[in-house]
Every structure is written in structure tokens, then in C-alpha cells.
Amino acid sequence: MDYKVRDLSLAHEGGLKIEWAERHMPVLMLLRRKYRDEKPFRNLRIGAVLHVTKETAVLIKAFKDAGADEVLLAGSNPLSTQDDVAASLVEYGIRVYAWRGQTPEEYYWCLRKIAESQPDIVLDDGADLHALLHSEYPGLAERIVGGTEETTTGVNRLIAMEKEGVLKYPVVAVNNAYTKHMFDNRYGTGQSTFDGILRATNILVAGKVVVVAGYGWVGKGIALRARGLGARRVIVTEVDPIRALEAVHDGFEVMKMIEAAPIGDVFITATGNKAVIRGEHFQLMKDGALLANAGHFNVEVWIQDLEKLSVRKRLIRSNVEEYELRDGRRIYLLAEGRLVNLAAAEGHPSEVMDMSFANQFIAAKYLVENKHLLKPAVLNPPLEVDKMVARLKLESMGISIDELTPEQEEYLKSWKAGT
Questions:
Q1: Taking the complete model, does pTM exceed 0.85, yes or no?
Q2: 296 a known binding residue?
Q3: Where does substrate bind (predicted)?
Q4: Is 56 annotated as a binding residue?
Q5: Which helix (H) or strand (E) holds 114?
Q6: d(Cα 387, Cα 404) in Å, to the nearest integer?
């Protein structure tokens, strides 16, 4: 079997991590057991570009158990792969092309291995695989049954492709499921971002001034956790007036980045855009400022400007680069500006990825079942699926909720009842 990982001898350790994740992902494990006999993915090849973590492994194994002829996996970030997990998946019969610390050239070599396998279903995190298939393999793209997309950044790219009329297959925007973005993006990223920052630096958050760029679901989660960890001030920067107003009403300070730059101790970007923190901001920052990114690509902290302003840099500890500016101030960049929660830690907790990956599995099954009915477009997951995932999650937590009586259902459907 063709594959490329760092070290197969790590497989045992990776298997233990996967086992731990399986114990904390009851919804996905339920789906895995349910479809082990039905084999809905029989005679299909699945190509995935996802963060190679223990949680992703549970999803990939579910596809294999559900009958997929072949499952291929590449990492969606050069620094997010857990090498022991990758090795364990190879032993399970998965073609893995992923190792931590890839160069950009190696990263795209791995993606091309996925594309050239001619997958029927593609799963992506950031839309690099979707973009590669359309730009370099248009013939292959035309025969693909469909795909899924896990991130806000990736969904935005796919919507742009649809608007330009170049999208060649239907893609379910898994990120748009409520049981994904309201929990994964907010609670998952909120916690795991600080997990990464603390593992890299071991700083005390209490008493610090934390600046959060962006107040989407990810930014909300980060700001919430910063306050919970005792940050003295939590400042939000935004370009959207509605989100800025929401941040104000949630009790956070809101100002421009140029105003926050000389105040902040820790800066965390979560916008999905480029050059959010750039030269004009670096020039105002205090000595010792920390920069971290929680967005998908390493473009939010504009490293080119930081390089130009610096007289020297050095790796002062794992995942912490020190940039010394001309006036002697030092600014610290975490995890090369890449996703700090995955590059410096383990990513989201298994409990929250349970819902996200249950949606991935169900979305792929939906594409297979409706392959002759769906046209190339970006599709939102059905609300019924969202509610099913939420209900299963509640049940796994031992929580039950009320149900509408027939009279209540009828009342909500009727327009006749008044005051």
C-alpha cells in the first residue's frame, strides 16, 4: 500500500490516542456501529484533506468500516499532523500522506496524491483540495460525486467558485451546521487556542490585556475563554459593525487595531483575512507582545512586515519565535503564525469534534444517496440532520428534553389562533 508518514514505529502510541478519542466521541461511534453492516460507501474511494489528529482518525476509520473501498488522508496544515496517529491509520489500512513539519512543496505533493487517486467523495478543511482539483485536475473534478467543507475559510472560497461558475460538483458546507460552528468554532477553538498558547509559552493569562481580532464564532469563543482565564481586559477589533456592536453588548471593549496595538499583551487573530496585524501595528506594540493566529491560513499576522522591521530572530522555545526590532523591542510569534491550537497543541477536544465529524459522515452519506439529483453548488446541511446530531449528543450526556404535544404542534402550524 502506498503511503508516506514520518515513522511507522509510532503506531502503537497513536492507537492509544485514537482509543481515547473514541471513548469521547459517542455520536460518531454510534454512526460507525450503525453503518458497519449496511456499508453505504461500498465501491467508493474517499479522499480527505483534514488535520491528522486522533479525532480525525475516528472519522476516517468510520468511513473504512462503512464499506469504502479505499480511504486516503492528507494533512490540511503543515504543522498540525500528529505523526503517531498517522502511523496508526496506516496500520488500519488507510493511505496516509502526512507528517508534521512539511514544506509547502511537500504539502501540495500530498494533496496531489489524493487528487490523483481519483476519489469519488472529497472531504476538505480549508478548500485547498477543492481548489487544486478545479485548477489542476478539471477532468477529475467533473467525475467527483461531491464533497464537504469543514471551515468558514473554505466555505467562503467555495462560494466564490460557485459565483464564478467554476464549481464542478456539489459541496456540503458542513461548517454551516449549527452543531458544527456554534460548538466547534466557539467552544472548541476558544479552549484549544489557549491550550496552544499556554503549551507554547506557559504565560499567566490572568492580568493580561488580550486583543482578539474578529468576532465571528471563533472570535467569540476566544474572547469568552480569555475573560474566563482572568484577562484584565479583553479588546475586540472588527470591520463588521453588527459584530462589533454584539461584542460591545457582550461586555468587551471594541476599538481599531491601531488603537489596541500599544495596549495588548497577547494578540489573537480569528478573521480569515490577510494582513490583519501588520507593520503599522508592530511598530506600536510593547516589548514582549505575543502574536497568535487561530484562522485557517498563516496570513493574518503579516510576517513579511515583521521580518522587514526586525534586525534578528531566533527560536527561543518550541513554537515561539522571537523577533527583535531595531529599537530593541521583542515581539514573539507563536507557531509560525499558523493555527496555534493545532500547531502548538492537539486541536479541539474530542467531545466537540464528535458533532463536527458526525456531520461530515452524514453529509458524505447524503451526497452518495442523492448523487443523481444534486447539481454543482454549495449546500447547507439539512436542519433535521443538525437536530438529530444534537439529540444524539444530549442522549450521550444523559440529558433528555421535552417534546411538543400534538396540540402544541398544531398551534405552531396554525395562523388562526389569536389573542
A1: yes
A2: yes
A3: 53, 125, 150, 180, 184
A4: no
A5: helix 104-116
A6: 15
Report whether 348 belongs to an annotated binding site: yes
- Enumerate domains of the chain plus CATH numbers: 8-180+348-396 (3.40.50.1480), 187-343 (3.40.50.720)
Alpha-carbon torsion angle 167, 170, 172, 175, nearest 10:
0
Please state, in angstroms and rounded to a whole number, the distance separating the CA atoms of residues 52 and 83. Answer: 8
Name the H helices within 261-416: 279-282, 303-309, 340-343, 350-369, 383-396, 406-413
Helix axes 54-65, 26-38, angle to 10 degrees: 20
* Beta carbons within 10 angstroms of residue 250's beta carbon: 15
> Which of these, 149, 166, 226, 238, lies nearest to 194 by C-alpha position?
226
Beta-sheet strand order (sheet of 310-317)? 253-254, 233-237, 209-213, 266-269, 289-293, 330-334, 320-325, 310-317
Mean pLDDT for back-to-back runs of 10 residues, the chain (419 residues): 96 98 97 96 98 98 97 96 98 98 97 98 98 97 96 96 98 96 96 98 98 98 98 98 98 98 98 97 98 96 98 97 98 97 96 97 97 96 94 96 96 88
Q: Three-state DSSP class for 269?
A: strand
| CA-wise closest residue to 96 among 10, 14, 4, 8 | 4
Tell whether 179 is in a known binding site: no
Please provide the distance, in angstroms rounded to a whole number, between the alpha carbons at the two ends of the chain. 70
Amino acid present at 306: L
325, 284 in Cβ contact below 8 A?
Answer: no
Beta-bridge partners for 210: 234, 266
According to the model, what pLDDT value does residue 417 have? 82
Cβ–Cβ < 8 Å for 81, 107? no
* 419 marked as part of a ligand binding site: no
Confirm whether residue 271 is marked as ligand binding.
Answer: no
For residue 60, give the nearest of 48, 69, 77 by alpha carbon.
48
Residue 319 annotated as part of some ligand binding site: no
pLDDT at res. 418: 81
Closest CA to 294 of 315, 273, 314, 322: 273
CA angle at 217 for the pair 212 and 219, rounded to the nearest 5°: 5
Is 103 known to sit in a ligand binding site?
no
